[in-house]
Amino acid sequence: MKMFNLFKKKKDSVFSWLKRINKAEQPQAEINSFHFGILEFEDTGYSLYLTGSSKYGKDEEWYCFSDFTPKEKYFNLKEQFEKVYSSEEWKDVLYNTEFLIREFVASPEFKKHFISKAEAITLAFDDGDLVRII
Known about the structure:
It is a single chain. This protein is α+β, with helices and mostly antiparallel strands. The chain has one domain. It has six helices and five strands, in the order ααβββααααββ. It is globular.
């Protein structure tokens, strides 16, 4: 992808968002899965959000149940990555966002984060197919 290198350099802002969530609050013990969703807003562009669910393994569409929603739920992708997201196709947005989440999962910060205890972590556009991260 043409924007891969630029995107890689900007990953720290996503990592910082996740670290702020981890520092500010902890989900209940029964939350066993986390979902990163991508939305496209007409006025602000693409945003990433995080929710947690206790339904993984109990319901096929577990990611639709938000049992945990952090106060800082949304991360505006376009604001942070304007050059990357200004004219991308949705598949590129999904690919680049998947790269960011996988980078976080492979990082030392992940081991300190509450999402590291999850049975499943997924990513998807709200009306799209799930990408299984772990």
